[in-house]
Amino acid sequence: MKFTDSPVIELAVRHGVLSLQQDNGSMHVGTSVWPCSLVLVKFAERWAPPLPPNTPNPYSDLLDFRSKRAVELGTGCGVAGMGLYLLGLTDIVLTDIAPVMPALKRNLKINKPVLGKNLKHSILYWNNLDQIRALNPPFDFVIATDVVYIEESVGLLLSAMEALLADNGVVLLGYQLRSPEAHKLFWELCEEMFVIDKVPHDHLHPEYAYEETDVYVLRKKKKQ
Ligand SMILES: C[S@@+](CC[C@H](N)C(=O)[O-])C[C@H]1O[C@@H](n2cnc3c(N)ncnc32)[C@H](O)[C@@H]1O
């Protein structure tokens, strides 16, 4: 397991290395880097085109990021968004609550040389419809990692996902069970709104596959 409580975490993504500064002592969970984000990025790195010729790829369509728009919810230090950017998801906006912005901005600045620019970022509280509208949805991708841990926020998170996602869009979710109550409610509501596919564990990156961490692909249910 590459997750560590050291103040700096490095993550190699194709031709670049991201360097993440985290502060585990802060009162905001968003200032730490959570394993789900690394697992999602390394899963995408394993399968996002281009792969060597004649490599069978069950995810070639899903992870074809060309000309796609994306938003990340609860980005924290920005690992998932930055990693997917390096894999070709170049039209992406990273969002989180206001107190997490300094940590996000610091990490975007540190990684500007490898990213080549300062990625778009914005304050977004999941219950704030004005902030959701200001992002100009719909998006082809909604990215979220380790965001299901407060029961009271679960409904808001799912509503934000639904409001931001295009009808034929995809949520890429890095998931770890944090709270049994939040877990139960999230998957109950999720099933009503989305078609849920779980990535088999042996499709994750072998060095970034932890028993307790999963990647899910969510698609909006077709309206009857
Ligand atoms: C456990 S952290 C995960 C951070 C990052 N995605 C990662 O995997 O390293 C959960 C994130 O969700 C954000 N979050 C929680 N509730 C939120 C809300 N109501 N609106 C927006 N963001 C929220 C937190 O600020 C935090 O950055």
Would you mind describing this structure in some detail?
This protein is of the alpha/beta class and 224 residues long. It has a single domain (8-49, 57-220), classed as Vaccinia Virus protein VP39 (Rossmann fold, 3-Layer(aba) Sandwich). The protein has helices at residues 35-47, 79-86, 101-110, 112-115, 129-134, 151-164, 180-193, and strands spanning 8-13, 16-21, 69-73, 91-96, 120-123, 139-145, 165-176, 194-198, 213-220. Strands 5-4-3-6-7-9-8 form a seven-stranded mixed sheet, with helices on both faces. β1 and β2 (16-21) form a beta hairpin. α1 packs parallel to α2 (79-86) and α6 packs parallel to α7 (180-193). The N and C termini lie far apart (44 Å). The mean pLDDT is 94. The chain binds S-adenosylmethionine. Residues 28-30, 33-34, 36-37, 74-77, 79-80, 96-97, 100, 124-126, 145-147, 153, 156 line the site of S-adenosylmethionine. GO terms for molecular function: methyltransferase activity. It holds the Pfam family Methyltransf_16. One of its GO terms (biological process) is methylation. This is Protein N-lysine methyltransferase METTL21A. Keywords: Methyltransferase, Transferase.
